[in-house]
Amino acid sequence: MNFRKALLSLTACAATTAAWGVAPGEIRWHNEASDTTKIANLLQTAASNESSTPQQRITYIAHALTGTPYESGTLEGLPERLTIDMSQFDCTTFVDIVLAIAKTSCEKRLTWHDVAHNLENMRYRNGRVNGYASRLHYISDWAIDNSQRGNIVEITADLAGASHEIKTLDFMSTHRDKYPALEDQAEFDRLKNNEIGYRSHRYPIVKTSRISKATLAGLREGDMVALTTKLAGLDVSHVGFITIVDGAPHLLHASSSAGQVVIDRRTLTDYLKRAKNVTGIRVFRLKD
Questions:
Q1: Distance between CA 161 and CA 173 in Å, rounded?
Q2: What stretch of H or E contains 154?
Q3: Which of 261, 251, 257, 239 is nearest to 69 (CA)?
Q4: In sequence order, what are the residues at sequence separation of 6 or more whose Cβ sits closer than 8 angstroms to the Cβ of residue 285?
Q5: Burial, 114: exposed, middle or buried (Cβ in 10 Å; 0-12, 13-18, 19+)?
Q6: Domains and CATH numbers, the chain
Q7: Per-residue pLDDT tens for 13-64?
Q8: Considering only CA atoms, which of 147, 156, 169 is closest in space to residue 227?
Q9: pLDDT tens-place string over residues 257-269
Q10: Reduced to 3 states, what is the DSSP secondary structure of residue 8?
């Protein structure tokens, strides 16, 4: 089937199903026209290969966004709303928009409304915006919520060298001054209540010292990788995707040091060895 026929087929499929997503007025855009156009272009090109896997779609979309400038704090606006900015990313917003577009493409849907629906579904507790504390700020919280709702699967425990770590996650409540939204006492109380479930939280990890050739052989192009941290109260400090370069896994990520989305020149192993506060990795896949 050529691209034109595939596109017509997918459009017909989308038209016969119930509309998803939120209205434009409910979204905080950087630039609605350019953001929606960029999303549509990525969706349509990803749809041209109907047989591609979720991992392959993630890889295509992530590679297409290399060179996009790095910018932190783009989600921090009040009141809390679904925010979409295709012009700049931090590590988290890069990962979650790529996952949302890939998931939408796999569902054979072709509109920004559907991407907005999936982005909200993956970024927020139970898939709905309900204030600042409803955003899944900790990767452990994100992993449990999205795994339970069938969005992703964590494969960390299946990798060679995997073990477990126990840590209390309370970085945000113990560093309240870093998060302007937590000046609101009600939001702060809701966040602290969410953190209660992560006291002495046990999660899988492959520690840097235990990453072997067998571990690396278990990674696939398009896997989401989360870098665990030594920082007290925090589970993960950085996220990105795996891309294979000359047979070795590299990190494809929004890099603050590079100032843009890049394929890191170092192998994943070298990157981890040089990152002083990183203790290891967790790995996730978009569910088929």
A1: 32
A2: strand 152-154
A3: 261
A4: 54, 55, 152, 153, 155, 220, 222, 223, 224
A5: buried
A6: 3-148 (1.10.3670.10), 152-286 (2.30.260.10)
A7: 333 333 444 665 689 999 999 999 999 999 988 888 776 899 999 999 999 9
A8: 156
A9: 999 999 999 999 9
A10: helix
Q: Which two tokens stand for residue 65?
A: 């966004």
Strands 260-267 and 248-255: antiparallel
Q: Which amino acid is at 115?
A: V
Burial label, 183 (beta-carbon count in 10 A; 0-12, 13-18, 19+):
exposed
Distance in angstroms (rounded) separating the CA atoms of residues 20 and 231: 39
Residue carrying the six token digits 């966040």: 191
The pLDDT, as a whole number, for residue 12 is 33
Going by C-beta distance under 8 Å and a sequence separation of 6 or more, which residues neighbour residue 22?
Answer: 82, 113, 116, 117, 120
pLDDT tens digits along 148-168: 999 999 999 999 999 999 999
- Give the DSSP H or E segment for 41: helix 32-46
Residue whose token pair is 């006291």: 199
Is residue 225 a contact partner of residue 268, using CB atoms and an 8 Å limit?
Answer: yes
- pTM exceeds cut of 0.70: yes
Question: 10 Å Cβ neighbour count for 156?
Answer: 22
For residues 105 and 57, give the distance between their C-alpha atoms in angstroms, rounded to a whole number: 8
Cα separation, 42 vs 137, in Å, equals 26
| 3-state DSSP assignment of residue 133 | helix
